[in-house]
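Q: My labmate handed me this sequence with no annotations at all. I'd like to see what the chain might look like in three dimensions before we decide whether it's worth expressing. Could you predict it?
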Amino acid sequence: MIAKAFKDAGNKVYMISGARTKDLIFWQDKMKKASTELFITTDDGSLGIKGFGTQVLKDLMDKEKIDYVIAVGPMPMMKAVADLTRGTGIKTEASMNPIMVDGTGMCGACRLTVGGKVKFACVDGPDFDAHEIDFDEVINRTKIYKPEERRRCEECNLLKK
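A: Here is what I predict for the chain of 161 residues:
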């Protein structure tokens, strides 16, 4: 909806969708409609450009004046986007959707540090200035949930055992 609103307001909207493989890419038709140009990247080259979306972003930054970047996805990717745009003057937001339990800020599962202050993604976000987020802290904290996530995915047959 954000991309569509920017496009409808007359802005150029470049959307980059990346995944490990083509089977994990979704909503291509919706993304095409909401953007001026859609770039698809896959780690294995099975669809679109082989490689990471950050390379496409870097190429766009080298060719175009980019004013605003929104990163949505895995923490390491959002951190890489923030690192790429840091110091360029490009406003960059990251949509922080870590584990959320109660949605009220009481449990603290979605706690993160932004600009040196403790924030809760569920009540203070989920969108924050990507250059202010302590991604290392968030990435390390979310690792504690990985064994439980894997176990639950295996129980639901979402992962191969």
